[in-house]
Amino acid sequence: MSGPKVRTPKTRERDASLSTQLRHDWTTEEVEALFALPFNELMFLAQTVHRANFDPNRVQVSRLISIKTGACPEDCSYCPQSAHYATGLEKEKLLAVEEVVEAARVAKEEGASRFCMGAAWRGPKGDDFDVAVAMIEGVKALGMETCATFGLLDKWQAQRLKDAGLDYYNHNIDTSPEHYSEVITTRTFQDRLDTLDVVRDAGLHVCSGGIVGLGETGIDRARMLLTLANMPKHPDSVPINLLIPIKGTPLADAERPDPFDFIRTIAVARIIMPKSFVRLSAGREGMSEEMQALCFLAGANSVFCGQRLLTAKNAAPGRDKSLFGRLGLSPM
Ligand code: SAM
Ligand code: DTB
Ligand code: SF4
């Protein structure tokens, strides 16, 4: 499928309407057609939509912490923390509340506006949930935005997190509905959607995205983004992760996606969810500065800062400061 090669009044009209409309009725064909645009055309369209909705030179910055590491009962075939694979990761029990609040204070000092707490759980249970709630209260009291990613939730748990002052809940759909069971067998795609529903219904901001590089096809990428865009409300934040290959996991040797396909995924997310923050998420450590710059040009406007994500490496110290400086970007 080839897209328009020159800008005409008709393409300009399309760009203007894409910039403002919040659609929830995308078809697979329409999303595939965006992916199939010539690269320059796609980037122009994404940047047009981005500029209509955001300051193009500002990037939201979040910091992650793993509050409970490893020994996860789920079998997500990309994850270093799954108990199903020998990844050599050192397990850690639940951190103490004070330790987490102190890490958040430091992250704030270093420029993060949001602090995201992640746990290697299928979902929160028992006393551990009470401790996690206390962490959220403590971080919120610092005046930071709070985010949690604790796995599957029921509606009472979602309400309890909301009452504790949680702002965002991260729960990724990871891939297309069709590819999901190739990647994870211990829960279903519908389980993920059900949690996203209870999170939204509790009035929490939704953070949901996926991973590029799980052996998915181009249609799977289109179907993943379309699933997010066709939700009752676009997720407020859409993390696009590039698979970090982890030794010992079934995806350790997965074929690296073409970098331009990753950038295209960011651009299409930007276009079909025009007002959402699109996060250039895991995988930055292995990217060149030029590739990251293209991701920002494609409409990414959020990143994780710091040397670590949950367990994997992120940006080396000083690298982001230098990158932001060279690109004239500033944190939101
Ligand atoms: N256990 C919770 C869950 O699965 O929702 C929260 C933590 S889990 C580590 C959060 C997300 O990290 C996953 O949904 C996945 O998208 C991402 N992730 C995990 N391992 C990754 C990897 N090796 N490369 C890229 N993204 C990864
Ligand atoms: C998201 O989409 N990516 C982040 C965050 N949400 C929780 C996690 C990336 C994890 C990468 C592998 C690791 O650090 O263990
Ligand atoms: Fe567990 Fe989350 Fe990793 Fe899956 S992605 S194994 S649920 S920590």
Query: In terms of per-residue confidence, which ranges show pLDDT below 50 for 5 or more consecutive residues?
Result: none
N-to-C series of helices and strands: HHHEHEHEHEHHEEHEHEHEHE
Catalogue the ligands.
S-adenosylmethionine, 6-(5-methyl-2-OXO-imidazolidin-4-yl)-hexanoic acid, iron/sulfur cluster
Total strand segments: 10
Provide the structure class.
alpha/beta
Query: What's the quaternary structure here?
Result: single chain
Cα radius of gyration in angstroms: 19 Å
Sheet with the most strands? Answer: 10 strands, parallel
The whole-number mean of residue pLDDT values reads: 92
Strand content: 5-15%
Fraction of residues in helix: 40-55%
Measured between the Cα atoms of the first and last residue, the distance is 38 Å
Backbone shape:
globular
Count up the helices: 12
What's a quick, concise take on this entry?
Helix content is 40%, strand content 14%. It is an alpha/beta fold and 332 residues long. The mean pLDDT is 92.
Structure overview:
- By secondary structure, the protein is of the alpha/beta class.
- Helices cover 40% and strands 14% of the residues.
- It contains twelve helices and ten strands.
- Strands 1, 2, 3, 4, 5, 6, 7, 8, 9 and 10 form a ten-stranded parallel beta sheet that branches.
- Helix 1 crosses helix 3, helix 2 packs across helix 9 and helix 4 runs parallel beside helix 5.
- The longest helix has 15 residues.
- It is globular, with a radius of gyration of 19 Å.
- 47% of the residues are buried.
- The structure holds S-adenosylmethionine, 6-(5-methyl-2-OXO-imidazolidin-4-yl)-hexanoic acid and iron/sulfur cluster.
- The site of 6-(5-methyl-2-OXO-imidazolidin-4-yl)-hexanoic acid (DTB) has 16 residues, from strand 7.
